[in-house]
Design goal:
The protein has 9 helices and 6 strands. It binds zinc ion.
């Protein structure tokens, strides 16, 4: 591990300042100060229905839930950035618990059989060291009690990072065929929650969802920390 990455990791094992505004944290605060935390405005039901319809129609996914909108000033956006690009893996479970609490408050989660975190390609996994969606899913699972299934589907093809592809069309062709179901016996008739860190155009989750539907999944739900 290169020295600078090790140094960054050490700095962030237990950061004692707010990641977003850099204020010193009180003893009982982690990652974000209360000011930044309370300023995050949750999406309301109508906004979520719009998000769902725009990205998945009403057929592919039954419901989608994202905690906040992807905005420059969002503290959760800062946290997802630290999680994905700065090695702050502990932020995953923290964000996942927030997502889990929102889910429990806003929908009946008892019908969901398991959570599938959007898989990373193994090369990407080696590069980053962890799958951020899996860490978020672990937080969701801790709060909701819904188990995680990491073995049902895998990322079969290495794809360029979605942020590097420009248009909606490019994003879609970039991700097409990227996922393969491994065990369709575990998918048939199941209600599945697909978890990702950020939902942008929705093409990644649409691709995962299409594969799951083709393998006989029943109801599909999508959840993320941010929606762009
Ligand atoms: Zn703050």
């Amino acid at each position: 591990m290169p020295g600078n990455i090790a140094g960054e990791l050490m700095d962030f094992v237990v950061p004692r300042f707010c990641l977003h505004c850099e204020e010193h944290l009180a003893v009982n605060q982690y990652f974000l100060c209360n000011n930044c935390l309370l300023r995050e405005t949750r999406l309301d039901t109508l906004q979520l229905i719009d998000c769902l319809y725009e990205r998945f129609g009403f057929e592919l996914a039954t419901w989608m839930f994202s905690v906040v909108k992807f905005e420059e000033w969002s503290a959760f956006r800062t946290m997802v950035h630290f999680l994905k690009y700065k090695g702050l893996f502990k932020a995953g479970e923290y964000l996942g618990k927030i997502l889990g609490n929102e889910l429990v408050a806003r929908m009946d989660t008892s019908e969901i059989d398991y959570i599938i975190p959007v898989p990373l390609h193994r090369l990407k996994l080696i590069e980053r060291g962890y799958n951020q969606s899996l860490l978020i899913a672990k937080g969701v699972s801790l709060v909701t009690g819904i188990p995680i299934n990491q073995k049902a589907i895998k990322r079969a093809r290495y794809t360029a990072a979605q942020v590097e592809t420009e248009t909606k069309h490019e994003r879609h062709s970039n991700i097409k065929g990227a996922f393969k179901v491994i065990d369709s016996g575990k998918i048939e008739g199941k209600n599945i929650l697909i978890v990702d860190d950020v939902i942008t155009t929705g093409s990644t989750i649409r691709e995962v969802a299409t594969e799951l539907k083709n393998s006989g999944a029943n109801e599909l739900y999508a959840a993320s920390i941010l929606v762009a």
